[in-house]
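Now for a concrete sample entry.
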Amino acid sequence: MTKSPSELGVEEQPVETTLYSLSDHAPDPVERRDGERYLTLFRVGSLMIGDRRELCLIRNISAGGMMIRPYCKLTIGDGVSVELKRGEQIHGTINWVRDETAGIAFDERIDVVELLASSMDGPRPRMPRVEVRCIASVRHGASVFGMRAHDVSQGGMKVESNSDIPVGAQVLVTLPGLPSRDAVVRWKEGRAYGITFRRLIALSELVEWLRGQRELLRAAN
């Protein structure tokens, strides 16, 4: 029987971390359905507003901007700068504010994949979670399902499917262009599944794969 989010143990619960997007557009506001429960582990960012420094939680980063949860009052049109890498300021403008979140449009696009690649130097941050658009092959026993992948990290991925696979199932996952990996279904909510890989994808391998995915996305657009 499928467990509800409130019945899941800590290791089984959906975890919402900072999402890196390969899109060139600044993130739009996101609607969350009532009753959704996540462990939230967002990246902490440093936000400069004039000569004032504030902290924020970064929910989503794309080439064109970011979505944050600020700890100060922000107004549409405010000029800000964000420090994502030590000593490097990215300038932008607040382009929307909704409830506890705000959107920043960068003055110049950034290279999200290179931002991820720089994570290989120095202390390791929490495993980055990257928005993707591809079909993953998920084998459970003798059955193979094509599932729409929403995001992927070194440790696992979120997929969507009408297929019925129980939480705790041992599966074999294949993403296009990457070797197959043994994995476990950790949680299920509606049509969404959280799958954890038994062995991490090396960050260098993930970054190289994302470069290819970014080129496919740009060619499709």
Notes: Residues 213 and 219 are 10 Å apart (CA to CA). DSSP finds two helices and 15 strands in the chain. Confidence is low (pLDDT under 50) at residues 4-11, 33-38.
